[in-house]
Amino acid sequence: MTNRLPQKASSTISMLQDLAKLANYSLMDTLNCDPDATKNGDDHAPRQVFTGHYVPVKPTPIIDPEYVAHSKNFFSELGFADSMAESSDFVRMFSGDISQVPEPMRKVGWATGYALSIYGTEYIQQCPFQTGNGYGDGRAVSVLEAVINGRRWEMQLKGGGRAPYCRGADGRAVLRSSIREFLAQEHMHALGVPTSRCLSLYVSKTEKVKRPWYSEGSRSENPDMLVSEAVAISTRVAPSFIRVGQLELFARRTRKNEHPKALEELEKIVLHLIDREYANVVNKQFTTPDKLILLAREFRSRLTSLVANWIRVGFCQGNFNSDNCAVGGFTLDYGPFGFCDVFNPHYQPWTGGGYHFSFMNQPSAAQSNFDMFCSSLRPLLASHQDYLLKLDEIQSGFSKVMEAQMEKMWAAKLGLSSLKTASHKALCSALLSELGTLMMQTPVDYTIFFRELSSVPNDIGPLKKSFYNGAAHDTTPKEIDKRWAAWLAKWKTLLSSSSEETSRQMKRVNPKYILREWFVVPAYQQAAVGNYSLIRELQDVMTQPYEEQSKDVEDKYYRLKPPEFFEVGGLSHLSCSS
Ligand SMILES: Nc1ncnc2c1ncn2[C@@H]1O[C@H](COP(=O)(O)OP(=O)(O)OP(=O)(O)O)[C@@H](O)[C@H]1O
Ligand SMILES: [Mg+2]
């Protein structure tokens, strides 16, 4: 849960040729290519893909690309020189033109199919053919796998043009959503929450597409106009982009006996996943059933820890379907996400997400995804009754492990990690429950409250900085103050370390700066007219979320959400993320 500092790589990569030498395409070289695909990657029209793990696809470059941003921290971790981000061959490649890349890089990328289930219900309705064979990466095209300083990374262009899974859409992402995703990924990494990373962001100076969006100050739930927005390509990077939905696709085909190679394809993708994401915990010599059991246990541990971390930092993924759940156990798809300002267990920035995918319901959403993951492994264990039972046990243990992760997380947020006895734990849980009620009745700003508490204040004065006065409570302010004072006193009796030590520990888990939507809006509005300075400022502030930073930064970014921003479309909620 601590902030991971970027590690400086040993050697510097300053040219695309240097990077090319590290290319190593494990997915393309070990998995099955769709036999119906055109090998040159000119496969952009929507169609059904019946077999195979991937389709070769050439990305479609954006016209007149312009540099917007790159992640300095991630560049440094990879050993990339900053100057690369604006060098012509790098810009060309990561704005979608891979026709000139140096060998052994390849001039064709790939897209993958996946299935979608929402809360454990399998869907095919989102597929234009009503079969599930036309669903997958519709606008995400991977262009490189490379082993850099001993770590394997896949680089994927988001908004890289149409793939057969595009379902008739344009394959593009707009600058607005790309900036949100770019900033959020690097912020989450700095918060110590596992996530895909963001390498670079380029915008087209001339190419635009239309998207539904909100008019200025609109309070409408759904967008009330169409806007023309510049297209952009952001490159996201992860050890793999394998989703629960991907395993699910091959398991569905196996169950339905859709083609003779279905079971083999399921086994191949699962073993490939283990190589890419779990090689350090799953011994290569083990039998496949043993590998699967270890995989399930480890994924359960990563997923429960991930969701506890989301709640720790006030993050709501918004649409935690099986197709947005990375089996590597990290955050993926920053579309309808948001960081909560006011604490509300049902906080949900996406108008289509409802209660299911709301803030405090994320453990439950995760469980549905984990159930689907386990179902997808089952066909591979069909002749191993004993292993099926082991898998059942791991699956049914999810809620207990999730609960334990949540308890650990809340204890850390409250500076009470050292409470070990059952009676202390019971006190901590009672304290937490009273806190939840108080936070909602007051109501409070989630981030500011925990950060102020982290200073171990003598009285409730500092905590009041986090109060949104008069919005929702049905109790008088005096009564509320009294209850807060009593709560604070009770909390203090449970602290076992000195105030200084408690404060130090709490400030490592309770961030001061959070990427609130109303910080991002002006950044993408200014970027739309070519001014990227606010993006740089946010990059700077949000990649040091636990630091105190300067007085200016504090005045600007350590603030309650202004009342005029509540219930405004695009600021408080969004219906479309693309
Ligand atoms: N403009 C678009 N053109 C083609 N396909 C799209 C477009 N927008 C979304 N899709 C596809 O629709 C599906 C569901 O949309 P979602 O909002 O999750 O997309 P996304 O943000 O592009 O996804 P991800 O980050 O998970 O790759 C995804 O498979 C995505 O690839
Ligand atoms: Mg998605």
From TrEMBL:
* Record's keyword annotation contains Nucleotide-binding: yes
Q: Where does Mg(2+) bind?
A: 324, 333
Which co-factors does it depend on? Mg(2+); Mn(2+)
In terms of domain of life, where is this protein from? Bacteria
Q: Which residues form a coiled coil?
A: none
Q: Which reaction does it catalyse?
A: L-tyrosyl-[protein] + ATP = O-(5'-adenylyl)-L-tyrosyl-[protein] + diphosphate; L-histidyl-[protein] + UTP = N(tele)-(5'-uridylyl)-L-histidyl-[protein] + diphosphate; L-tyrosyl-[protein] + UTP = O-(5'-uridylyl)-L-tyrosyl-[protein] + diphosphate; L-threonyl-[protein] + ATP = 3-O-(5'-adenylyl)-L-threonyl-[protein] + diphosphate
GO MF term (any one) = manganese ion binding
What keywords were assigned to this record?
Answer: ATP-binding, Magnesium, Manganese, Metal-binding, Nucleotide-binding, Nucleotidyltransferase, Transferase
Q: What InterPro entries does its record include?
A: SelO
Q: What is its EC number?
A: 2.7.7.-, 2.7.7.108
Where does the record place the catalytic residues? 323
Q: Write out the residues that bind ATP.
A: 136, 138-139, 158, 170-171, 236, 243, 333
Record's family?
Belongs to the SELO family.
Q: What is the role of the protein in this entry?
A: Nucleotidyltransferase involved in the post-translational modification of proteins. It can catalyze the addition of adenosine monophosphate (AMP) or uridine monophosphate (UMP) to a protein, resulting in modifications known as AMPylation and UMPylation.
PANTHER family named among the record's database cross-references: PROTEIN ADENYLYLTRANSFERASE SELO, MITOCHONDRIAL
Q: What is this protein called?
A: Protein nucleotidyltransferase YdiU
Identify the species of origin: Methylomonas denitrificans
